[in-house]
Amino acid sequence: MKINPMPFLLLLLLITPSLAISDTGQSNLQHHLQSYQQLQGRFTQIVEGDLTSQSSTGEFWIKKPNQFRWHYSTPYVQKIISNGKKVWIYDEDLEQVSIKSAAMAIESSPLSIILGSTSIEQHFKVERLTKDDSLEWLKLTPTSDSSGFEFIHVGFKKGILHRMKLQDNFGQTTRLLFTEVSTDTPMDDELFQFTTPEGSDVFDETIEQ
User: Fold this and answer.
1) Which of 16, 133, 155, 201 lies deepest, with the highest CB count within 10 Å?
2) Element (H, E) at 21
């Protein structure tokens, strides 16, 4: 089973301090986005197509500017980990590890903002939506057709990330619900390192050919 890390990487994008919202009354919401240096919590991810629906759950840890750990625990164990230089994608069922350059993994993508190499305003139109379900909502619309998705909705509850909804260009919808979110849990840098399990197949794209 292949997991798409895009929703998680977009989450990283949203907690970087360069986000600007096209609404003169947005200072309070912008403060929410910029007021913490790390996030930790649990998530439920639901991917819906025309005739299919797939659910997964797990935990995540994020530490600015570019360290993260995204752990799927059901229905299969998969981990996406970055120490800021490398990204490891580990599939326990397949006993397979893919290693990518953190910079190359998001090169020529809106996600390059994670590394501070570009500005989100160059890639998204950002606007506030009507408050719904006690959440404050943002809508991000890509300015380029090559982004792969039509829009992203992001919902905050009392200043804390609570929901995301992504609609891709093929009509597939990804929904993320975040729970037990903390902004002050201590995180050691060792959390963002990965040791390849013995016997695993390794595909290292960082090795020069």
Assistant:
1) 155
2) none
CA–CA distances in Å: residue 99 to residues 26, 38, 79, 111:
39, 24, 12, 18
Q: Which long-range contacts (CB under 8 A, 24 or more apart) does 102-107 make?
A: 102/66, 104/205, 106/9
- pLDDT greater than 70 at residue 26: no
Mean pLDDT value of segment 78-85: 90
Find where tokens 């977009």 sit: 10
Entry pTM: 0.80
pLDDT band at 43 (very low <50, low <70, confident <90, very high): very high
Report d(CA 21, CA 140) in Å as an integer: 9
Q: What backbone torsions phi and psi does residue 111 show, to the nearest 5 degrees?
A: -70, -10
CA end-to-end distance (rounded Å), the chain: 28
Burial of 64 (0-12, 13-18, 19+ CB in 10 A): middle
